[in-house]
Amino acid sequence: MKKVKVFIPATVSNVACGFDILGFPIMSFGDEMVVRKTDKKGLKITKVKGYDVPLDITKNVATVSAMKLLDDIKTDYGFEFEITKNIIPGSGIGSSGASAAGSVYAINKLLGDPFSNKELIKYAMGGEVISSVSEHADNVAPALLGGLVMVKSINPQQIINLPLLPDLFCFIINPKIQVKTSYSREILPAKIDMNLVTSQVSNFGGLIHSLHTKDYDLLKSSLKDSIVEQHRKKLIPKFDEVKEKCIELGALGCSISGSGPSIFAITKGEDLAKKIEEEVTKIYQETNIEFSTYISKISSEGVSVIDSE
Ligand code: HSE
Question: According to the CATH classification, is domain 168-297 in 3.30.70.890?
Fold first, then answer.
């Protein structure tokens, strides 16, 4: 294989009660990347389409993660990247995670799959860290593995694919304002009230149990964030109104996607996700902020090869 084109899904991370440790891909939306093997060693970004990201290989998360991978495997080739950036940087749906995951996945394919997708996570994380200034795998792991992924630990790496309930869908609204992950981490308190920790832990445990027992009611009462949402929601216009509407219409949960400003709601069934999309669109049309909405089944798919030569 000399050339590979891959699709890398956007991702919802945190998923309410799983700050930094839970995420899933949005299969209806993502970036594309073409990676070519070259005889000349080294990395080069030949083209960036869509949203602007650096061409400098030391500043682009895709090439930084690629370098981390290539530190660990000997190859006589170089690689050229053509990146189609559909996910806006700073949107809360895993833009840097997609770049970081896509490049290592593509290079691994071109080298004949020496690594498993799970093994690629640490390299992708090593790239993503330059944009978010903190090591977390809750975007890159679901992008690479697909499904609802729990990051139990990054060192040593313990990553778990959780069971999925049938018929789970997700609605996402991405207001086109930029919230840098580094900033939305900075505004989080250094110390947290013990009661909030207790409630977060109990919700996270409830969520895991609900997936194993197929208990939608328990899932609904567990999809809550006691720690982060209250601080970050100020960065998101109409967050409370959107959340209230999603819950009123019957969503199983609604919270901030990643570090924001995107908001997600989880539903049982696609029809409800569509109804929510209609109503939340009306709310956001009252602002002068541009936005996009997406609906995606929560499935076990992740990054994939679209084409190869
Ligand atoms: N878990 C991270 C955060 C996701 O919420 O800061 C951002 O990429």
Answer: yes
Q: How far is the CA of 1 from the centre of ligand 1 (A)?
A: 35
Tokens 């996945």 correspond to what residue?
Answer: 105
The single residue listed with the structure tokens 């697909």 is: 146
- pLDDT > 80? residue 132: no
Q: What residue has token string 């049309």?
A: 285
Q: Report the candidate in 179, 178, 97 with the shortest Cα–Cα distance to residue 135.
A: 97
**Considering the domain 3-161+300-308, what is its CATH architecture?**
2-Layer Sandwich (3.30)
Task: Catalytic residue, from 11, 32, 84, 128: name it.
Answer: 128
Over residues 51-91, the pLDDT tens digits come to: 999 999 999 999 999 999 999 998 999 999 999 999 999 99
- The yes-or-no answer on residue 181 being catalytic is yes
Is 128 known to be catalytic? yes
Closest CA to 30 of 91, 94, 90: 94
pLDDT of 291 > 80? The answer is yes
At 295, which amino acid appears?
I
Q: Which atom belonging to ligand 1 lies closest to the Cα atom of 19?
A: 1
